[in-house]
Amino acid sequence: MSLEKLELFEVFIRSKRGLDHKHTGSLHAEDKEQALEYARDVYTRRSEGVSIWVVKSNDICASQEDDSESFFDPSDDKPYRHATYYPIPKDAGAM
Amino acid sequence: MTQINAKQDLIDYTVRLGDDAIVIGHRVSEWVSKAPFIEEDIALGNVALDFIGHARMYYTYAANVDNTLTGKNDKTEDDFAYLRDERQFQNHLLHELHKGDFAYTTMRQLLVDVYNKYFLEQLKNSNDETLAAIAIKAAKETKYHCRRSKDWTLRLGDGTEDSHQRMQKALDDLWGYSHELFEQDELELRLVEAGIAVDCASLKASWLAEITAIIEQATLTVPTQEWAVRGGRQGYHTEHLGHLLTEMQFVHRSFPGAKW
């Protein structure tokens, strides 16, 4: 087995039941089964998790720095998209 | 059998189990910083620590029983790990053989991990409550070790021509040391009779069936050679154990009683 054949995987760990899986880090492995075992060994050895997801880094479609202007700037001037923008009518009572 | 002899038997047996665990744990730890890549380095370090953890449980228990027997309170796990010489260690020879290449380590782990799986399953039923409790804890880690060593055996056996050949050579070199795992001396027979020790001879069929299936799936061949080496349980060791103990015991013997 040559090291060049190893693929990069992203690791997501759920720290306890009811919480979301959170991105924890990445690692190299030959395939997804091995990646899962290494994720266990590398990222949960101090009882950090109850569930692990691994996904090939190549399979993640990520936004790029160049996209940020068109992706994110337009929402800066649209405060009405936040619930806090609207006054709550008295009759509605506590929300 | 007198009460005292029964306790001494229990101590001797428990120390044997500790010897198996600490010797292979130390061997696996020799991979730290030398594994093929960082993820495997960490994984092997974890496995080594699991085995050393098992050794600590066995040795600590043996020390406790020993203290009740002598009425003193001076024996600890360290006495068994660091202050005994080669002839007093009673681990199976398979565990002490050198680290070898990665194929050799992988194949040894497969043989030992699958053995431990069946062994601990039986030890859970021991009449001795502490040994049964240790078995429950160790079995969980062993299940993971089996998964790893099977996975690697399939990868390397059914991998490249080089990895296949190295795995077959490792298997051929190790096979003769596996028979000892299923042999019992009088001490173990007495304890089997008492419902304390595992009847390891009875594990052979299940072990062989599972190992054969994995080996064949990995496109390797189970050796047919008849040679066998034994003696570990009687304290007769290969040339490898002395070197291991030298390294493992050096700090403790150079600085007796040191704490940090």
- Under CATH, the topology of chain B can be stated as Ferritin
What share of residues of chain B is helical? 55-70%
The description of the largest β-sheet of chain A is:
3 strands, antiparallel
List unreliable stretches of 5+ residues of chain B: none
CA-atom Rg of chain A in angstroms: 21 Å
Number of discrete domains of chain A:
1
Radius of gyration of chain B, rounded? Answer: 18 Å
Biggest interface, chains and residue tallies: A-B, 15 and 17 residues
SSE pattern of chain A: EEHEH
CATH fold assignment of chain A? Ubiquitin-like (UB roll)
Name the CATH homologous superfamily of chain B.
Answer: Ferritin, core subunit, four-helix bundle
The helix fraction of chain A, in percent, is 10-25%
Strand count of chain A:
3
Instruction: Tell me the total number of β-strands of chain B.
Output: 0
Briefly note the structural class of the backbone of chain B. Answer: mainly alpha
Question: What is the class of chain A in the CATH system?
Answer: Alpha Beta
The CATH architecture of chain A can be named as Roll
Low-confidence stretches of chain A: none
Descriptive notes:
- The model of chain A has no long low-confidence stretch (mean pLDDT about 90).
- In chain A, strand 1 (about 5-15) and strand 2 form a beta hairpin.
- Chain A has one domain: Ubiquitin-like (UB roll) (Roll).
- Chain A is flat.
- Chain A has a three-stranded antiparallel beta sheet with strand order 2-1-3, with helices on one face.
- Chain A is of the alpha+beta class and about 100 residues long.
- Chain A is about 15% helix and about 25% strand.
- With about 260 residues, chain B is mainly alpha-helical.
- Chain B has one domain: Ferritin (Up-down Bundle).
- Chain B is built from ten helices and no strands.
- Chain B has helices at about 5-30, 40-70, 75-80, 95, 100-125, 130-155, 160-175, 185-195, 205-215, 240-255.
- The mean pLDDT of chain B is about 95.
